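step=encode ok
step=design start
structure_in=
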């Protein structure tokens, strides 16, 4: 039996967040989020567990995350990392509480999520262009109809967010892994989410593409104050860009700043010597 789900989308009177980003968010314009009531600036996860039959996939996860931060989830294969993200998206039944705070106050509405998967499967003979893909995701207008001026503006605006507007006429099937993931990222932040989930989004991408992707994601947290949760095996880039690292092995084994986690015995036991990562 799968555990019964009871996600709590509210702010408990005993929860408290004194993080500087929450104060900053309450003082600045939220127009970038398209929400006059502000955006989610704090998420507190309490005793979150996922169980299948008599086996725990996740057990007693406790985590406090904030907007304007990039939190990296690391761990060996099968540790429950992807299940954790799917639980936040309400795709997996679970027990425990998920509490959201908006502008220093309790929030009963669900946050807006953006999601970039590990990869997008595209047939090699597909004629779909990048522009077609963008319109199919953001407009109800059939992509085979002639593009209107506002359609062209929309496509350019979306792709420019990650610097890939020059790829508009390219076939999706002809793109490199890094180019495709930057397009997926552009779509994931339109409209701008409260929480951006990245599930190993650069798996199979070359080193140059990796660095570009991480740099763009890093800029997003600062320019838009969104919460970013990233699953990654790229430990050196995580060390460079993440504000917080969470090592998961069914439970949270250790969490903290990259330099703290990477020096821990738990990290070395999971990944071996940290070598020249830091």
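sequence_out=
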């Amino acid at each position: 039996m799968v555990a019964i789900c009871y996600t709590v989308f509210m702010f408990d009177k005993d929860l408290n967040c004194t993080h500087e980003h929450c104060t900053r968010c309450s003082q600045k314009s939220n127009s970038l989020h398209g929400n006059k009531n502000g955006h989610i600036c704090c998420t507190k996860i309490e005793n979150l567990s996922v169980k299948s039959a008599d086996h725990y996939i996740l057990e007693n996860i406790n985590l406090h995350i904030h907007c304007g931060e990039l939190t990296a989830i690391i761990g060996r294969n099968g540790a429950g990392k992807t299940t954790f993200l799917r639980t936040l998206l309400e795709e997996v039944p679970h027990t425990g509480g998920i509490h959201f705070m908006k502008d220093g106050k309790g929030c009963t509405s669900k946050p807006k999520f953006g999601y970039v998967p590990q990869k997008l499967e595209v047939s090699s003979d597909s004629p779909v262009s990048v522009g077609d893909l963008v319109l199919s995701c953001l407009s109800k207008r059939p992509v085979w109809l002639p593009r209107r001026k506002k359609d062209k503006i929309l496509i350019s605006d979306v792709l420019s967010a990650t610097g890939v507007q020059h790829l508009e006429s390219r076939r999706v099937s002809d793109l490199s892994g890094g180019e495709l993931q930057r397009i997926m990222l552009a779509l994931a932040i339109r409209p701008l989410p409260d929480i951006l989930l990245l599930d190993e989004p650069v798996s199979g991408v070359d080193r140059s593409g990796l660095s570009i992707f991480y740099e763009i994601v890093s800029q997003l947290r600062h320019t838009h104050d969104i919460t970013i949760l990233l699953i990654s095996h790229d430990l050196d880039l995580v060390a460079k860009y993440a504000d917080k690292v969470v090592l998961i092995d069914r439970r949270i084994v250790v969490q903290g700043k990259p330099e703290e986690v990477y020096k821990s015995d738990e990290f070395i036991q999971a990944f071996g010597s940290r070598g020249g990562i830091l």
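step=design ok
step=annotate ok -> The chain has nine helices and ten strands.
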